[in-house]
Amino acid sequence: MKAWTLDSTGAGLRLEEVPDPQLQSGAAVLRMLAVQVPAYTRVLTVGGRGGIATPTVLGIGGIGRMTAVAEDVHTVRTGDIALSTGFLSTGRIAEPEEVLLGWTGIGGRGTPTIATDGMRRVWRTGTFAEQALMPASTLVALPGAERYPDLARLAFLPWLSVAAGAVERSALTPGDRVVVTGASGQLGGATVLLALARGAGRIAAVGRNASSLERVAALDPRVRPVRSVGDRAVDAAAILDALGGEADVTIDALGPAPTADLTMAGFDVLRLDGTMVLLGGVRQTLPMPYDELMHRRITLRGSWMASNETAYSVWRQVEAGLLDLSALEVTTAGLDDPDTVLAQAEATSGLGFVALMP
Ligand SMILES: NC(=O)c1ccc[n+]([C@@H]2O[C@H](COP(=O)([O-])OP(=O)(O)OC[C@H]3O[C@@H](n4cnc5c(N)ncnc54)[C@H](OP(=O)(O)O)[C@@H]3O)[C@@H](O)[C@H]2O)c1
After folding, report:
1. 201-246: per-residue pLDDT in tens?
2. N or C terminus: which one in the chain shows less Cβ crowding within 10 Å?
3. Which protein residues touch ligand 1 with a CB less than 6 Å away?
4. Nearest CA to 5 among 21, 22, 29, 24?
5. pTM (2 d.p.)
């Protein structure tokens, strides 16, 4: 089969003929149908987002049709269209450990252990390929997906699921005033879609890229775009203005920003008893004032990836029309020219993305 392989970090992504994945106990083989190529994929291949277990077929997430299912696997059935999350847990209740397959990412404190090394050594068949072999626990059957009119749009399900994990952890309730910092990014755009579906009353969509913000604002009159100027106090004032008051919930979906200022502006605008969820890729230490966190009774939560139940609930919302994917700007691509596709992906943001259709 054809696949995009990464021999080592920085070696470049190559189109290669590799052996078809062989079915093994506890796993299933998918024929990949649609896979999102995140905007930062090229940066990731050169080590800009953490270590990758190589050599590997790269690629996380996506939807595929199950072509072979091991006899001890019952999460999916042959012929199903399923979501591949790439999110694998040891399942050990006492000290759970988690990794992402075909990608960068070790959960918890991010430190490799015997278990995380083991998981990342066994599973090297990522989703930027015609077929992928995945452990059963990372597959979520999507009954009814075969009737969805445009499968390329479903490539965004993994990103939507991750955003949904953050929205759930924020305990957003209908009518809430919500801030999404990094709303001009793909994860931020997904978060705005999820917050709208959950009944947010007003959303301040904060970012720098004007055209991305415009697209997000066009989703619904409840979304108010806020152009960040990179000054904490000025950004906070603009957010308060857009919301018409303090926020119930802030969800930070920023990429690796050079300072914590915009994240902290999202903190500054929270009301008493407000909740802040950290979802993005900021690598800064946050200057959290103890007394304010205490007196304002702020709940501060992290959110990494999402449960299979959350991913399934996202699909149910799409199927029911609550999550409308028609606003997504999808560019489809094949496997033939990885370099061009990575460049196309790099140029996408917000509600625009590249769907690989191997
Ligand atoms: N928690 C999880 O489970 C999870 C899962 C997947 C990914 N992530 C992380 O989420 C982050 C966002 O993902 P993404 O795909 O949406 O990335 P992205 O497309 O790169 O978007 C990043 C967002 O951050 C903003 N940004 C980037 N650099 C900035 C800077 N220097 N100053 C101010 N704003 C800046 C961008 O603003 P403009 O475009 O407007 O400039 C955009 O709104 C990534 O870093 C990724 O590692 C987390």
Report:
1. 999 999 999 999 999 999 999 999 999 999 999 999 999 999 999 9
2. N
3. 38-40, 49, 162, 182, 184-188, 207-209, 212, 253-258, 262, 279-281, 303-305, 349
4. 21
5. 0.97
